[in-house]
Amino acid sequence: MRGMADKSLEVNLECVNDYSYLYEPTPEQRENIEKITREVISKINEVIEELGLRGVIREVSVQGSFARDTWLPEDTDVDVFLLFDKSFDFEQMRKMTELISGKVAVKLGASIETRFASHPYYVIGFNRVEVEIVPAYKIEDIREMRTAVDRTPFHTSYITSSLLRKPWLKKEIRVLKVLLKRLGIYGAELEVRGFSGYLSEVLVIAYDGLVPLLEAASRWIPWKVLIPHDAPRSLIGTAPLIVLDPVDLRRNAAAAVGLEQLSKFIAFSKIFVENPEILCCMLEGKREVPDYMLDENIIILRLLSHPPLSDDALAGKLRRILDSTRNTLERNGFNVLRGLMVHARRDFFLVFQLETSVLPPLEKKIGPPVWHTNSKNFLRKWASHTPAPFIDGDRWVVISERKIRKAEEVIMNALKVYKGFEWEIMRGEESYWKIAEDEYREIKGVLAGSEIWIYCLKKYVSGHKL
């Protein structure tokens, strides 16, 4: 790989070339995607002419990783932007894009789906390829932006021109994207809170290669990372990772990256510096499924129904429900070892691994110090209680019966405030019979640590023989 920091890494990473070709689109794949894209764009232009919108839609262009030639063979989706004149009303632009997309789908005999990001876009499914039709404004200067996606053509231009100067970085970008996928931190959507494709490209270009990036990341400390290094120091601490967008210095291109996701990337990078072969293990993609039973102290919630929300909004809401429910459990005396959101097949699950799912019948309530004015209120409440309050050290204490002992009761009470959400609740051991086998395996795998990077961690760090 180009951009090697030292000869030892270069020797150790020769194996990367044995795998990297797998993530390079073949000539046949390129030709197929290009043919489909041309056909879709041809129909778009046909509909634009039929509707007399040529003066309103200034440009139809391909954007995203396909336009930048940094796409992975497994990601067969293409972004086609309809760039409207900036004098056009936003709601009209949305309606017109919906109309155009619908007519194009009919002409192609293709499926169509509405999705949401910063604003709606339309996905045409045609010959096993997803073509995303995105409305945006045609602008000449980034300061003229009216919607978040208006900057996308600037992103495409920046990445394309950078890679024209250093075309070998395309392979390294693809390897980084595969690595991030294997780490489970690829994608800026709320379900993942990871590294977007554009951010991946910007980082490899900024560090002039994947290995220099990983070496630098091994020294990163969350909330103290600022790229480029000459950016205003006042930004430090405003996000776990700050990478100023090269085309819009007002924007943090890494704003979506969560603390846990950044920490996982840093952890891998630190291991990589000591054990470079772990990168080849990650590209190989093996994993083991440990023998691990889901017991009665694991509580699983399956989402049955929810209010109408976009995928991203739903994932964000579920994360908030997860955090709130975890806090409620802990306030009620349950020690939550782990709380997870798992998306398996088309189902969402919230999973709570507890030290125990049933608490003892009695609990110790610690009151104020005997000399504190609040001790009067404590005694008013508990003086007639049996067993009676007593002094432990300098504090009043009482032993009382718990009102709620079962975690399921606490959870279901906590969930009542979320109107429109319906759940099925089950313990770990019974989930085997209630959910699909592949969903059970996914949940078990996440809890047991069957991720690819954990397999590689065992192989190269713990001395575990695999």
UniProtKB/TrEMBL annotation:
<comment type="similarity">
    <text>Belongs to the tRNA nucleotidyltransferase/poly(A) polymerase family. Archaeal CCA-adding enzyme subfamily.</text>
</comment>
<keyword id="KW-0808">Transferase</keyword>
<feature type="domain" description="CCA-adding enzyme C-terminal">
    <location>
        <begin position="304"/>
        <end position="427"/>
    </location>
</feature>
<keyword id="KW-0694">RNA-binding</keyword>
<dbReference type="InterPro" id="IPR002934">
    <property type="entry name" value="Polymerase_NTP_transf_dom"/>
</dbReference>
<feature type="binding site">
    <location>
        <position position="65"/>
    </location>
    <ligand>
        <name>ATP</name>
    </ligand>
</feature>
<dbReference type="GO" id="GO:0000287">
    <property type="term" value="F:magnesium ion binding"/>
</dbReference>
<feature type="binding site">
    <location>
        <position position="79"/>
    </location>
    <ligand>
        <name>Mg(2+)</name>
    </ligand>
</feature>
<keyword id="KW-0479">Metal-binding</keyword>
<feature type="binding site">
    <location>
        <position position="155"/>
    </location>
    <ligand>
        <name>CTP</name>
    </ligand>
</feature>
<dbReference type="GO" id="GO:0004810">
    <property type="term" value="F:CCA tRNA nucleotidyltransferase activity"/>
</dbReference>
<dbReference type="InterPro" id="IPR011068">
    <property type="entry name" value="NuclTrfase_I-like_C"/>
</dbReference>
<feature type="binding site">
    <location>
        <position position="68"/>
    </location>
    <ligand>
        <name>ATP</name>
    </ligand>
</feature>
<feature type="binding site">
    <location>
        <position position="177"/>
    </location>
    <ligand>
        <name>ATP</name>
    </ligand>
</feature>
<dbReference type="GO" id="GO:0042245">
    <property type="term" value="P:RNA repair"/>
</dbReference>
<protein>
    <recommendedName>
        <fullName>CCA-adding enzyme</fullName>
        <ecNumber>2.7.7.72</ecNumber>
    </recommendedName>
</protein>
<dbReference type="InterPro" id="IPR006116">
    <property type="entry name" value="NT_2-5OAS_ClassI-CCAase"/>
</dbReference>
<dbReference type="GO" id="GO:0160016">
    <property type="term" value="F:CCACCA tRNA nucleotidyltransferase activity"/>
</dbReference>
<feature type="domain" description="Polymerase nucleotidyl transferase">
    <location>
        <begin position="42"/>
        <end position="154"/>
    </location>
</feature>
<keyword id="KW-0692">RNA repair</keyword>
<comment type="subunit">
    <text>Homodimer.</text>
</comment>
<feature type="binding site">
    <location>
        <position position="177"/>
    </location>
    <ligand>
        <name>CTP</name>
    </ligand>
</feature>
<feature type="binding site">
    <location>
        <position position="132"/>
    </location>
    <ligand>
        <name>Mg(2+)</name>
    </ligand>
</feature>
<dbReference type="InterPro" id="IPR048833">
    <property type="entry name" value="CAA_C"/>
</dbReference>
<feature type="binding site">
    <location>
        <position position="186"/>
    </location>
    <ligand>
        <name>CTP</name>
    </ligand>
</feature>
<keyword id="KW-0460">Magnesium</keyword>
<feature type="domain" description="tRNA nucleotidyltransferase substrate binding">
    <location>
        <begin position="172"/>
        <end position="278"/>
    </location>
</feature>
<dbReference type="Pfam" id="PF21133">
    <property type="entry name" value="CAA_C"/>
</dbReference>
<feature type="binding site">
    <location>
        <position position="155"/>
    </location>
    <ligand>
        <name>ATP</name>
    </ligand>
</feature>
<dbReference type="Pfam" id="PF09249">
    <property type="entry name" value="tRNA_NucTransf2"/>
</dbReference>
<dbReference type="GO" id="GO:0001680">
    <property type="term" value="P:tRNA 3'-terminal CCA addition"/>
</dbReference>
<keyword id="KW-0819">tRNA processing</keyword>
<keyword id="KW-0548">Nucleotidyltransferase</keyword>
<feature type="binding site">
    <location>
        <position position="186"/>
    </location>
    <ligand>
        <name>ATP</name>
    </ligand>
</feature>
<dbReference type="Pfam" id="PF01909">
    <property type="entry name" value="NTP_transf_2"/>
</dbReference>
<keyword id="KW-0067">ATP-binding</keyword>
<dbReference type="InterPro" id="IPR042090">
    <property type="entry name" value="CCA_tRNA_nucleotrans_2"/>
</dbReference>
<feature type="binding site">
    <location>
        <position position="68"/>
    </location>
    <ligand>
        <name>CTP</name>
    </ligand>
</feature>
<dbReference type="InterPro" id="IPR008229">
    <property type="entry name" value="CCA-adding_arc"/>
</dbReference>
<feature type="binding site">
    <location>
        <position position="77"/>
    </location>
    <ligand>
        <name>Mg(2+)</name>
    </ligand>
</feature>
<dbReference type="GO" id="GO:0000049">
    <property type="term" value="F:tRNA binding"/>
</dbReference>
<dbReference type="InterPro" id="IPR043519">
    <property type="entry name" value="NT_sf"/>
</dbReference>
